[in-house]
C-alpha cells in the first residue's frame, strides 16, 4: 500500500478513536494515551499525525465539516434551478449539523468550551469553505438572471452567517431544541434570504 494512502488510513483511525472516546468521556477526560490505545497505534505514531490532544479534537470537527462541504457540493452540482439548490443547501447544512450534534451529545459543547480560541481560527476556515460552494450556485443564478448582481462570495457568506445561529457552533445541544422545529425555522430563514436576492419579486 502506498505510504500516502497508509498515512490517510492512520489519521482516520485516530480520528475514529477520538470520536468514540469524546462521545463516551467528553473532551476533558479523554487523554492522548486513550486515543492511541483505542486506535491501536503507538503514541509516537499518533504524534506524527497530531501534535496534541487539542489538535485531535479539532481534527474531528475538521473532518465533520469536510464531509458537510462535500455533501453541499453534490447538491450544488445537482439538477434544479439555482433558487431550489440554494434552499436545499441551506436546509441540509443546518439539519446535517443538528444530527451530528445529537449523536455526539456533550462532545461539541465540551470541545467549544475548552478550545474556543483555537476553534475560532478553524471556524473562519469552515465558513470560507462552505461559502465558496454556495457562491458557485449564487453566481450561476446571477448569470441566469434569477438573482440580483453582487459579489457571489459576499452573498454566500451572508447566507452562512444568517443561518449559523441555528447550528451547534452557536447554541448548545440542549438549546437547539427539536429537529422539526429547527427544520421549520431554517426553511423560513432560507425563504427570506433567497427572496432578498431575487432579481424579480414574485407577485
The H/E string reads: HHHHHHHHH
- Global outline: elongated
End-to-end C-alpha gap = 61 Å
Number of helices: 9
Please tell me the total number of domains: 2
- Rounded Rg: 19 Å
* CATH homologous superfamily assignment of the largest domain: Tetracycline Repressor, domain 2
CATH architecture of the largest domain: Orthogonal Bundle
**Arithmetic mean pLDDT:** 88
As a percent range, the share of helical residues equals over 70%
| CATH classification, class level of the largest domain | Mainly Alpha
Largest sheet: none
**Strand element count:** 0
Q: List the uncertain runs.
A: 1-8
CATH topology of the largest domain: Tetracycline Repressor, domain 2
Into which percentage range does the β-strand content fall?
under 5%
Which structural class do you get from the secondary structure elements? Answer: mainly alpha
Describe the structure.
The chain has two domains: 51 residues, Homeodomain-like (Arc Repressor Mutant, subunit A, Orthogonal Bundle); 145 residues, Tetracycline Repressor, domain 2 (Orthogonal Bundle). The chain contains nine helices and no strands. The longest helix is centred in the middle third of the chain and has 37 residues. The N terminus is likely disordered.
